[in-house]
Specification:
With about 240 residues, the chain is an all-alpha fold. Helix content is about 70%, strand content about 0%.
Length: about 240
């Protein structure tokens, strides 16, 4: 049986019930703002920035309130960013798809947002004993696609910046996963009295990994020729 977090009476008496887990979501807001506000970023990367800000807001409200109702907002935002990341990653591998995504960026943003809300609402639906829309399934699929795109980027470009960016993102993500798993109820890092909460580190490191990965993979469409992608020397 899955263990659930139980908050103390003292924690429930505060306005911010999980301080570190709440304020660490600023990492998502800052990371999202960096992607959204960068004029050098592609439209799909800026859309990812908006979705990441959504994750920061949803997770902030959930951890501040410890409300199971607001958990739906947090989960919906995560579905939104994961679906957007899958599109972005596939586009980095298939140039024609990338051009299509850039052309229909706004519409796809609304679609992924709507699908994120639907995923949050129906994630516990069971078919033949399996939850196909479970959050864990979406996380594994999205991160796998993003990691493959990141590795392909490093292999194809063979530049120091691409390799360093890929390594940084992968190391940060690996550490983030350790902290996230360890901080689950009953986990080896789950300690409400600890001076630094492992889940807060998960927020900071996963935000770092995500932004670095997107920045590394991103190749904006040439503004002078919007229907073509820039190429590397020799390609």
């Amino acid at each position: 049986m899955e263990k659930r977090a139980v908050h103390s009476t003292d924690a429930l008496s505060h306005l911010i019930r999980e301080p570190q887990n709440t304020w660490s979501n600023l990492a998502y807001l800052v990371g999202g703002a960096l992607l959204l506000g960068s004029a050098a970023s592609s439209r799909s990367a800026r859309s990812l920035g908006l979705a990441l800000i959504g994750v920061g807001i949803g997770s902030f409200l959930y951890h501040a309130s410890a409300s199971r109702t607001l958990r739906h907002l947090d989960v919906g935002a995560m579905y939104w960013v994961f679906l957007s990341a899958i599109l972005f990653s596939l586009g980095s591998v298939v140039p024609r798809l990338r051009i299509w995504i850039e052309k229909h960026g706004m519409a796809l943003g609304f679609v992924t947002l709507a699908l994120g809300g639907a995923g949050a609402a129906y994630r516990n639906v069971t078919i033949a004993g399996v939850k196909p829309l479970a959050l864990n399934v979406t996380i594994v699929v999205a991160t796998t696609v993003l990691i493959v795109a990141l590795v392909l980027t490093a292999v194809r470009r063979r530049t120091r910046s691409a390799v360093n960016g890929s390594v940084t993102a992968l190391v940060a993500f690996g550490a983030a996963v350790v902290f996230q798993i360890g901080d689950r109820p009953g986990g080896f890092l789950c300690d409400p009295a600890a001076p630094i909460q492992a889940h807060a580190l998960w927020h900071c490191l996963s935000a770092l990994a995500f932004v670095v990965a997107v920045k590394t993979i991103d190749r904006p469409v040439n503004p002078e020729h919007p229907h073509t992608l820039p190429t590397q020397p020799g390609q």
